[in-house]
Amino acid sequence: MTRTFKNDDVLNLLEELDLNNQKSILEESSNNFAKVDKKFFNEKQIVSPDEMKNIEKELTPQKKYKQNKAKRKVEMQQKFGEELIYFGNSLVARNSAEYKSKRLINKNSVQICREKQKIQKIERERQIEELSRENIQLEKEQTNLNREILKMADEIISKGLEIPKEIESVIFALKNNSSAISFNK
């Protein structure tokens, strides 16, 4: 005598068998895992399989993220029937107006960034020129002041007056540097 089963009955039996099988496998693996752990670690450091899964998740979030991203892309392509690409964090159809506008915006922002860099470079060069002109002007003024100090010192000496020792050392330094003064004319 044969017994006939409905599809639902068969599925229920398979699920029960599968669940029982999974439970026994899980219990066996956790027991084996604990035994191995006891060999290498003391009892306080035993890690359960659930904790190991959590540790794996913490160690590989980027990998999972990439896998989920790829799955999502495939699902969306199948759903819409178009080639999709990631643009930033969003999926966009390659031929869509949204993609074209985002791409144009991206190109424009790159172009704007380059223009800003050119402007900044020109401004820096202009500032350098300005500073060098100011530096040259200050050097000329310093040279003229040094000449005047030397002339005054010569006049004081020619009149027979004494020059204070502090000023004498400055005049001596200026006279030794007179070649630099004549060079900067």
From TrEMBL:
**Annotated Pfam families:** bZIP_2
Q: Which residues form a coiled coil?
A: 114-155
Keywords from the UniProt entry? Coiled coil
- List each copy of the BZIP domain by range: 96-159
- PROSITE patterns for the chain: BZIP
Q: Which domain of life is it from?
A: Eukaryota
Specify the protein name: BZIP domain-containing protein
- Species of origin: Brachionus calyciflorus
